[in-house]
Amino acid sequence: MSFDERALGGLITESQDLQSEAMAQARANLPMLEEIRHERGDVNPGPGERRAFDEGRRSLLARLGLSGGGAAVAGAGIGSALAALLARPAAADTALDIQIFQTASSLEKLAVETYKAALTLPFIKDGNAVVKKFAETTMMQHDEHKKAFQAQSTKLGGQVQDMPNPKYAPVVESTKPTLKAPADVVKLAATLENVARDTYLADLAMFTDANSRFLMATVMGVETQHLATLRAVQALLAGGAPQLIAIPTDIAKLPAAAGSVGFPDAIPKATMASPPSEGAVK
Q1: Average of pLDDT values for 169-182?
Q2: Which H or E element spans position 152?
């Protein structure tokens, strides 16, 4: 399928503007994280600490009624009684922040590997040009996210996580043999983007450092954009209208739901969030 390269380039530029803002914040955050590390002390959390943080932080949102529509976010591994949280030594927050960045790194690593594998499939590599360009651009952005999160971990005194997420990597591997059409790839990619978006949303409630919170919120915006695009593509494929996945497209032929399918919830709930310990370096 042919497409208007200039129009597509404009959309990619808009996407890159949001990406550039996130990466600029990541770079600006590094010196401040190093200061925080020295203030709190070097900490590499052990398994016991990771469990304690997860269990403690779970109860915070549950007690405050902020558990993402009930037990969903609490079940994602977030929370701690407020008094207990404030009573913890400052070093404990560093340990938690390291876990958050390590798990985020593992999700980004898996996303990069998944898009890379998808681009080798004939029906993606030689298929819809818009879908292929989206996959290439999104893979590059995830790689930048991964490197940024790894740098944040290092500045806090933690180890670099360069392995794919241990929970979802086996899911991706078991799904690969079943990828027979573009819709299969889009569904898998949307799931990973959903997990990343929900995880970063949940992480916002745990950061004690405002700059790290802003960084995560900015990256979450990029993941939300990815997810919305994939949901729109998924809807068009399911509706038997792959010809409308084009730039420019025939707006008059788009279904009425085209403008809202990418954002089914006005306020997203972190129902698929990964807990900080999930991708932490063991």
Answers
A1: 97
A2: helix 129-155
Supply 256's token pair: 């009425």
pLDDT in tens, 105-139: 999 999 999 999 999 999 999 999 989 999 999 99
The whole-angstrom separation of Cα 196 and Cα 186 is 15
- Residue holding tokens 């404030």? 86
CATH code of domain 5-42+93-259: 1.20.1260.10
46: left (phi over 0), alpha (psi -120 to 50) or beta: beta
Q: How far apart are CA 211 and CA 225, in angstroms?
A: 22
N-to-C CA span, the chain: 46
User: What is the Cα–Cα distance from 40 to 34, expressed in whole angstroms?
Assistant: 10
- The CA distance from 254 to 237, in Å, is 12
Note the pLDDT tens digit of each residue in 227-262: 999 999 999 999 898 888 887 778 888 887 777 888
pTM: 0.73
DSSP state of 239: T
